[in-house]
Amino acid sequence: MRFFIVDDDIAIRSILTQIIEDENLGEIVGEAADGDQLESSYLNMLKVDILFIDLLMPNRDGIQTIRHLLNSFKGKFIMISQVETKELIGEAYSLGVDYYIIKPINRIEMVTVIQKVVERIQLENSIHDIKTSIGNLLHIKSPTPMTTAHSSEESITKIGEFLLAELGILGDNGSRDLIDILHYLFALRRNKTVEQDFPSLKDLILEISKKKLGPSATQVDINREIKASEQRLRRVITSSLNHFASLGLADYGNPKFENYASSFFDFTVVRQKMRELEDNSSTSNTPTRVNTKKFIQVLFFEAKRLKFRD
After folding, report:
1. Which of 36, 49, 65, 76 is the most buried (most CB within 10 A)?
2. 103, 82 in Cβ contact below 8 A?
3. CATH number for region 2-117
4. What are 165-222's pLDDT values in tens digits?
5. CA 97, CA 91: separation in Å to the nearest integer?
6. Domain residue spans in the chain?
7. Contact by Cβ (8 Å): 103, 12
8. 3-state secondary structure at position 90
């Protein structure tokens, strides 16, 4: 990855450079002390993937700079600032900032954030490459079934991983189960209308458990795997709920919160979880229950939309 740092504090630029170099996260291709020194054409020429940008700078602040670059800069934004007001954080996210980091810089937090943004860039690039490949295949007369099937399988995996990253649960225990369910649903879609006759949650978990264990598995093994998969799914979906509740507390106007929270979860459940987090309480008179089947249905429909959109 290629990084560019904009901050009027030379110490901050030095700290970021050291973190990126020490952790082998990529290459620093440029620095600037103020936003008025930046133009999209220059950043794109340097092939900048991630732009670190300070909020408060003397001549052109971070918000103004992002507005100036937004329509033509091809990379991602990570904003760093000492300011913690919800209004400014919300405005930054509404402009497309991927992460807003509060100074002083914490090495572990910074490395984690960079890795998440890099992961998202890689997923978006993979999805773009796969869509291009599939588009090219459609222009080849009579492509072999094996080639087409392999491309489709890879496409579903990448789209699923992209969505799980958006939902804050990529790599969590249980995320593999969700990817396996997507593969099963897309395979089922070839033979029947899944949209009108969506399988039961019980059937979905049974099918992915049987596929995971293979034909030699005993019924005892399958039953054990079904229970384990049910637990993993509940935990990973609850983790996504916690993720969006936290986003909503930090910034109710966060675009990811607006786009996904009410689609994947009942909003009353999201509000309940937000109140629990706000009160710093892990208990509630009414236990928070996630609708696993609804979550899976929305995940499938979102994946289908991404796979087949123009």
Report:
1. 65
2. yes
3. 3.40.50.2300
4. 889 898 888 999 999 999 999 888 776 666 567 889 999 999 999 999 999 999 999 9
5. 9
6. 2-117, 144-310
7. yes
8. helix
